[in-house]
Amino acid sequence: MSARDLIPYLEALTNAPTVEDLWRMHCEQMAAYGFDRLIYGFTRYRYGGSLGDPQDWVVLTNHDPDYTKVFIDDGFHYHAPMLRWAIENSGACSWRWVRDPGNLTPAEQRVIAFNRKMGVTAGYTVSFRSVSARSKGAIALTAKRGQSQEAVDRIWEKHGEQIVVMNNVAHLKLLTLPHTGERRLTKRQREVLQWVGDGKTTQDIALLLGLTPATVEKHLRLAREALDVETTAQAVLKAAFQNQMFVLDAET
Length: 252
Fold this sequence. Notes:
This protein is α+β, with helices and mostly antiparallel strands. The protein has 2 domains: 3-174, Transcription factor LuxR-like, autoinducer-binding domain (Beta-Lactamase, 2-Layer Sandwich); 187-241, Winged helix-like DNA-binding domain superfamily/Winged helix DNA-binding domain (Arc Repressor Mutant, subunit A), CATH 1.10.10.10. 50% of the residues lie in helices and 12% in strands. It contains 10 helices and 5 strands; from the N terminus they run H-H-E-E-H-H-E-H-E-E-H-H-H-H-H. It has helices at 3-14, 19-32, 65-73, 81-88, 106-117, 149-174, 187-197, 202-209, 213-227, 232-241; strands at residues 35-43, 58-61, 91-94, 123-128, 136-143. It has a 5-stranded antiparallel β-sheet, with helices on both faces. A hairpin with a 7-residue loop joins strand 4 and strand 5. Helix 2 (19-32) packs antiparallel against helix 6, helix 7 (187-197) crosses helix 10 (232-241) and helix 8 packs across helix 9.
């Protein structure tokens, strides 16, 4: 892709209205470079050696269900060597890194064996620079089946800078889009949390919305339950992280 062609793509990417639209567009573009299977992951809830509750992660993939069932749902990703690399580093890394002696633990070697069985053998990982100690994002770009790592490295030598830029832009755009999973707030729950975020008391919110204080408390409780948090302050923070606060044209 020439620089002239890159600009329209980045413009379309930054104007994607939904996560689904962006992901479809990005998967198609990466496939054009030979990376036909992607896994994107992001968390704002990292602490110590943990990535936080998996229900709070943003995970996008176009891998086959047979692969994602084991790698993601069954927890193989916890021992993926390139995930370890991504947590400890920023930038792009060729998967030839796993071949270096001493780089892999026994658990990571089992993941490599599973990947080999599933045709996930060559690719690159891009780890995005974090602005918070609690957040981390990365994307794994898997090359087409039968492609050698040496061939992928040659593609990267020619197009790697553009690929990194496109993935960085996709990542930054994803951070602005609502990503709720099963933890979607209702319109009323969102309204009361927004007023709390503006510093209003329960009594203030009741007056503003024409509700009783007890009804406001009920909506705050349901919002906490929907977001799986203990306090209203946590609910406001999580809703903001998920871009459910002050959203234009949000669903009711």
